[in-house]
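Two proteins follow. First one:
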Amino acid sequence: MNVASFSALAEFLYARSGLVLTPDKMYLVETRLAPLMRREGCADLNALVAKVKSALSGPVADEVVELMTTNETLFFRDGKPFDHLRQQVLPKLAASRGPGGLIRVWSAACSTGQEAYSVAMTALEIAPSLGGCRVDILGTDLSRDVLRRAEAGRFSQFEVQRGLPITMLMKYFRKDGGEWVLKDQPRSLVSFREWNLLKPPQTLGRFDVVLLRNVLIYFDQPTKTRVLDHVASVLAEDGVLYLGGAETVLGISTRFQPLDGTPSAYVLA
């Protein structure tokens, strides 16, 4: 891939997804786009980029974005945010909202749904302490392919072994051949929608909890600030934002402040 094509691809990905593609990621480009290049009959990656440039909103361009964005996820990733959610945040919000109230959770960049479903199982495990308050979870991602997988609620043996306690596996999943299928109870709490974090999110509604975990690390600082501003605009006054363990709002956004020293948890400033 020549320099001009790489620059054009980097500009396209940045505009569409906020992803910052640096020259040291050339190996990643070659690995992820080679199958698409072959399928489209392109002689090399330069030809594939030319095809994308000729139809920036076409299916090939959309697939390039999907292939280049990272979709790594697992159940109860990092653990502590879910402990905090279970022990403190959900009970406190439920007490505030009252019986029959609603707690809305946004799993942003949800990939194949493990995070959103982890929140659902967490809510079900402590349902008696929520006093009849309902929990509604929205998972969003810009990749239609991963959203289809999330909606199916089907996971491989490898996927359920990554972070999911055996007690929850047996309680909330059923075996179907070589896969595990989520039961109706946790699935009923979750819906999925295609969404680009670069877009203002007002049409998604208001949220009490936002999980924006291990996403900002792929953005440059202006894009991080923009995305955090978007989240702040839809977070309830007493809501909580969770970031990934290697992420922070410090020096990036003045809209948030740490929540009582809790790692990775933030509230509106």
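Second one, unrelated to the first:
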Amino acid sequence: MHPAAARPLLTIDATDRIVFVNDAWVRFARSVTVTPAQAQMLTVDTVIGRPIWDFVDGVQVRQLWEVLYERVRAVGAPVFVPMRADTSRMRRVFDVELHPIGERAIQHVYECAWTEARPPVALLDFASPRNGVSLPHCAWCARIQIRVGVWEEIEDAQLLLHLDPADALPMLKSAACSSCKQSLLKTFPARVA
């Protein structure tokens, strides 16, 4: 199989509706979905035709994606956005390439840039029981906010917050840390020569 065939792909139209996903994107989305039940509901057929916003949690996260989409559409050139997409046993960094493809459509190409195995992290094991508390979790760097303005790697946050994996754990709420927000707001498409 050609290496590019395994890359997750998603395309949205001018109204931000999903018009294409491949099986690799479905597998990717399932790996970062909050519950096993939600993961199983993700298929090519259940995704096509729905707004991308059905799959984006957090008001601030949505606003940042909207800014990126508008820049891609306005300039007509790609934007490259790094994004962590960790699982409970793996650290992963993806480069998300946003390509304008005509009629204000945008294709997302997810390129895995780096992976590293790690001991299991209970906060990212979505099969673990959850309590009613939620923790802000940056959608781009995967750090956890442990107090206002302080974001830590998930393993460190779990220790600093004294979260016992044997207990019900907080839910992760998608957010944007101040560092990622500033970085994304400075992201501009490469201008076409």
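SUMMARY FIELD: The CA atoms of residues 136 and 173 lie 5 Å apart. The chain has a mean pLDDT of 91.
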